[in-house]
Specification:
The protein is an alpha+beta fold and about 260 residues long. About 25% of the residues lie in helices and about 35% in strands. Strands 1, 2, 3, 4, 5 and 6 form a six-stranded mixed β-sheet that branches. A hairpin with a 3-residue loop joins strand 5 and strand 6.
């Protein structure tokens, strides 16, 4: 009898183990490095299993938005390159890359962990613009969670560049860190059959019936959620996913704190 990839995954899950030997609620090995790009104001490389993401932060000065004249600007971009996964194609940003960037951006923005008022230089005239670029070096699932870890690690390690009047002097970082307070952590829970999993591999992500990405803070405060997949989720399943995300976020947060000291 010939089984599909999903049938193999479900068959294994019924035995309480995943195809790579992990338990359903177990992350792959995680490594976090900061200060990886010398030309960026902040950077990080995060590897979770075979998914590896590089994040770089560049700071510039510009005019604020008219509706927020005394606040700086945060932008998160993700470029899913074909060198990291054959499923990615060259050209305009894909729906997946847009979702990755927006979910990570929303989690950071809604957490209020960055004091955007402190990014104001002159209200209505000049503010700091913080650009976070995410680039996967290799992709084997769970891009949102891994990308977010890299983005937060890079932001927490960011130092303001020097200024000469209103001009930024790159290559001369100051000792002043970007005003990043707490640590928002997203955790994506996927449902395959009747089982809930964390840190899905590429095959698990593709075969998931539904997924829910939940971003929380240290105090358990919910910052953002993103639903994906075609299957519906019951209130009981959503509640269980919220609890799992909060629990796993704390584990990831502790790893991140050790890396950015």
């Amino acid at each position: 009898m010939v089984y599909t990839s999903k049938e193999h995954i479900i068959s294994s899950l019924k035995k309480g183990v995943r195809l790579d030997g992990r338990k359903p609620l177990e992350f792959r090995p995680i490594t976090i490095e900061t200060g990886f790009i010398s030309t960026a104001e902040g950077s990080a490389r995060v590897k979770v299993g075979d998914t590896e993401v590089l994040a770089g932060v560049k700071m510039a000065v510009g005019k604020p938005y008219s509706d927020t004249p005394d606040r700086g600007v945060l932008m998160v971009n993700a470029e899913l390159l074909s060198i990291s996964n054959p499923d990615f194609e060259q050209g305009p940003p894909s729906i997946e890359s847009i979702e990755v960037a927006r979910v990570i951006d929303r989690g950071v923005r809604e957490s209020k962990t960055i004091d955007d008022h402190a990014l104001c230089i002159r209200a209505g005239e000049l503010v700091w613009m913080v650009n976070v670029d995410l680039c996967p070096l290799n992709t084997d699932g769970n891009m949102i969670d891994v990308g977010a870890l890299a983005a937060i690690a890079a932001l927490k390690s960011t130092r303001y560049p020097s200024m000469d009047g209103d001009k930024v002097v790159y290559g001369k970082p100051t000792d002043v860190r970007l005003p990043v307070g707490g640590i928002p952590i997203p955790v994506t829970i996927v449902k395959i059959g009747d089982t809930l999993l964390v840190d899905p591999s590429d095959d698990e992500f593709k075969t998931a019936d539904a997924r829910l990405t939940v971003t929380t803070m240290e105090d358990g405060r919910l910052c953002a959620m993103q639903k994906g997949g075609d299957a519906a989720l019951s209130l009981e399943e959503v509640s269980q996913m919220l609890d799992l995300a909060s629990e796993k976020a704390e584990e990831l947060r502790e790893l991140l704190k050790k890396a950015i000291r």
